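lol ok so funny story. i was supposed to be doing the assay writeup but got distracted and ended up predicting the structure for this chain instead. priorities right. anyway since i did it might as well share w the group, maybe its usefull for someone
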Amino acid sequence: KKKTILILNIFFLSLFIYALWIFRTSLNTFNAKVLIENSILKEKTFKAEIKEVNSQKGIKAWLMEENSVPIVAIDFYFDEAGFIFENNDKAGLTTLVAQMLSQGAGKWDREAYHNLLEENAVSIDFDAHDDVFEISMQTPTQNIDIATDVLKAVLQSPHFASNHLEIAKRKQIEAIKVKNEKPQSVLNSAF
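and the output, tada:
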């Protein structure tokens, strides 16, 4: 019995050493400098400065302008709005809101909303992270007015159509059940 335990310990120690060797070898083979030298990035320089700006209402933001590409990208992060801040009885709410915000807004129903974004190469995404809620928007510069109109409508008058909401709720409840069956997920929630 002791011999079997010793053999198992040696086996697992050997396996651990092999895994460390593979990890170390993979670190040595990745060379970012070589990757950039062999790509189109070697010809690009980015001289953007990041400036802190504050609104009249005290909202802090960081502005970075890079005018070599005719694209506007805006990301909003709302601190302490991620799913780790949900009460147990509201589990999944942040993810549900992120899903529902892309289901139409203002004068655009779900289909018109998605068609408008696609026709104008506008991307507006919502994502619930552990500790923040993210809203991101990317648009060609010439479509900035359309993109900001749609984003404004989403933030001021989102559609939470009952049929889409019920489907999203059922999916979210099922996802929570599956998550709660995984020991690692339960452990992560506890800590």
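The longest strand covers residues 71-79. Residues 51 and 63 are 5 Å apart (CA to CA).
back to the writeup now i swear
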